Amino acid sequence: MSTNSTPLRVGITGNMGAGKTYVCKIFENLGIPIYNADYEAKKLMITKPDLIESITQLLGNEAYTSDGNLNKPYISKQVFNDKSLLERLNKLVHPAVRQHSLEWSNSFTNKPYTIQEAALFIESGNYKSLDKMILVSAPLELRVERVLKRDKTNREAVLARMNAQMPESEKKKYCDFIIENKEDSDVSAQVEYIHQQLINHNIKSL
């Protein structure tokens, strides 16, 4: 592969408890750069001056603490009680993340592809800016068990959060690859297969 080529931009998504982070670690061990869109969004919201100004205009000065960090309890209360406000906030944040991730990905001219991880790729429409999409899938009960163990919460709360997400069956329609992350699945083998497919696709497109 040419060292000056632009890498393929690949997204990984999946519902709560599917194991996106676990799968990303396997790709990372293969030398693939990983971009955590949710983490980077929060970082941009406190470091990008024009975004900070827009969020302040939308939500008020209370959106930020005195030391410049996000006032998460305040923001959560505002947007989750007003869906239109949440949509307006997302319209500010998602384009900033999309542009930042594009610049990030294009910096890896020595890689065949990069991976971006986000729970809401499909819902936000950001999947349209990517070359390929991977869905990490797992049975509902297994996902519930994983989240219960991870978040130390109760089953009703977990199910309520899961039911608010786009169904896995719907997300599959937008994805090029599906990784089954079940107890008896060889996830590493599935990742290796996709890894080779993406490398070959990149070489053919040069």
Structure description:
With 206 residues, this protein is of the alpha/beta class. The protein has one domain (8-200): P-loop containing nucleotide triphosphate hydrolases (Rossmann fold). Helix content is 54%, strand content 12%. It is built from ten helices and five strands, in the order βαβααααβαβαααβα. The protein has helices at 20-29, 37-47, 49-59, 72-80, 83-106, 121-124, 140-151, 155-163, 168-171, 187-204, and strands at residues 8-13, 34-36, 113-117, 132-137, 177-180. Strands 2-3-1-4-5 form a five-stranded parallel sheet, with helices on both faces. It is globular. The mean pLDDT is 91.
Secondary-structure topology with pairs:
Blueprint: E1 8-13, H1 20-29, E2 34-36, H2 37-47, H3 49-59, H4 72-80, H5 83-106, E3 113-117, H6 121-124, E4 132-137, H7 140-151, H8 155-163, H9 168-171, E5 177-180, H10 187-204
Parallel strand pairs: 1-3, 1-4, 2-3, 4-5
Helix pairs in contact: 2-3, 2-5, 3-5
Number of helices: 10
The secondary-structure class comes to alpha/beta
- CATH C-level name: Alpha Beta
Distance between the termini: 8 Å
Could you describe the largest sheet, including whether it forms a barrel?
Answer: 5 strands, parallel
Number of domains: 1
Approximate strand percentage: 5-15%
Q: Residue-averaged pLDDT, rounded?
A: 91
Task: Tell me the series of helices and strands, N- to C-terminal.
Answer: EHEHHHHEHEHHHEH
